[in-house]
Structures are given as C-alpha cells and as structure tokens.
Amino acid sequence: MKKTILITGSTDGIGKLAALKLAKDGHEIYVHGRNADKLKTVISEIKAASNNDTINGFVADFSDLGAVQNMANQVNRDLSKMDVLINNAGVYKSRVTKTKDGFDIRFSVNYLAPFLLTKAVLPLLKKGDAPRIINLSSAAQAPVSLEALKGDIALSEMEAYSQSKLALTMWSIHLAENEPDLTVIPVNPGSLLNTNMVKEGWGFHRSSADKGRDILYDLAVAEKYNNASGKYFDNDRGGFGAIHPAGNNDEAVQLLIKNTNFLVSYQE
Questions:
Q1: Which CATH number does 4-265 carry?
Q2: Catalytic hit among 30, 111, 161, 217
Q3: CA distances in angstroms from 113 to 50, 79, 109, 180, listed in the order given
Q4: What is the pLDDT of residues 168-184, one digit of tens each?
Q5: Closest-CA residue to 187 (of 143, 217, 161, 227)
Q6: pTM for the full predicted model
Q7: Catalytic annotation present for 161
C-alpha cells in the first residue's frame, strides 16, 4: 500500500538514503532540508533514481522554531494525511551553538523542533493508515537538565547532544502512551555510521550508513513493528532495549513535557 511519508533532515545521510529506498517502493515521499537549492537537487535525484514522481519537499532551518512552525503550517496545507513521520534531522557539531531563540542548537534541532513539528501535524497523522512516528535517538543519552533545555546554562557538545537525545526518547515514550492510535518508536540507528555528521563530529566511522537506512525503512513500513509503540529500538544491538535509567523517572518525564510545551507554545 502506498504511504505518505515525511522525513526530516533528508537531503543528506541516512535520511536521504531512507527516502530513496522508500521512494523505490512507490511511496509518496516528502523530503526536508534547510537549504532550498540542495532540497531541489535531492528531490530531482530521488525522482530519477526511483522512477517515482511523487517526491516533494519542505524547507526549514530547525534551529529556528518559527521556521519549524511555518513548515508545519505548510505541511498541514499541502497534505490531506500523513502515514509516516520520520524525525531524522539532527546536529552534533556546529559553528553556532546558540539559536536565535536562545537554545543550545542541539536541543533545538534534535528535540524541540521535532516536538513542535509532530505536535502540529498530529491531526494529519491521525488521518493516516496505521500511522507511525519514528524518532531518531542515539546510544549517547544523558540525564536532562531543565536549565540546559531552557538555554540558561551552557553544556559541552557531547553533553548537550546526549541530553537532547534522551529528551527525545523520553518524549517519544510519553507520546506513545498518550496517543494509542499512533505507533511511536524511538531508535538508535547505529553508532558512528558513515555520514557527514559523524565525519564532522568524530572524524571516523564504524559502520556503513546503509545500516541506519535499513532500520529506518523497516521501522517505517514493516508489519512486524505494528505493536512496537513506546519501545526503544537499539540498532547497535539489533533489537529493542533499555533507555538511560534517568529517562524512566515519571516525575522527570512530566517536568520535561511541561517545560517543553511552554518553550514551544509561543510558536503556535
């Protein structure tokens, strides 16, 4: 069955690879990137390589929450439904560490932006066929500081990245519990895959980017994950696993969601 699929951060890396693989199956794919020219090029590349003309896209810089809301508004105007949302966009290393909104760029791109986008397009997902949300987590996870989330204190690159990824994972599980009609799966696609983000951040890789592409593809459409909502998939281990223990604290989850809703509410 043909699905309507939006993949953020899909002009490069495993997002682009997954978009191409899904496009080859004939699905309607929406690509996202922050550069309009690059987005246009990637859409043309995927159309040609997949022989699929139902490829379109959206432009938004996820370090700017206003731009994320504008993109969400456009998605809601252009689409009648959405079957799969893959929140893949992410950042580790950046020349700019603070966003215009005052947040650490890793918290903005990796967590606040997908939170805001997903919240805004939930009505479209609820119209979809067996709708799924796949959220890109990481093996790197650390207890979330609400002060850091708000931008009140500065963290190292790794600490901010790790906290943003646990925040995303905690929210994913919370969302799964509160939206029983959706399948929500946070996933570590694999550590140190051969992508530009990994090259820029760490300078070496351990696994092919295809490893991440394949798990995103499977989680998006494979029937065996129909009942996997709220479970964390660890692709380093090849199956479902445990998140950082700090993410299992109910009080911490509630405080995280309350503060996140407050931080993104002025964009709505």
A1: 3.40.50.720
A2: 161
A3: 29, 19, 5, 22
A4: 999 999 999 999 999 99
A5: 217
A6: 0.95
A7: yes
Give domain limits for the chain.
4-265
**Tens of pLDDT, residues 201-259:** 555 455 567 778 889 999 999 999 999 999 999 988 889 999 999 999 999 999 999 99
Q: Strands 232-234 and 183-188, how do they pair?
A: parallel
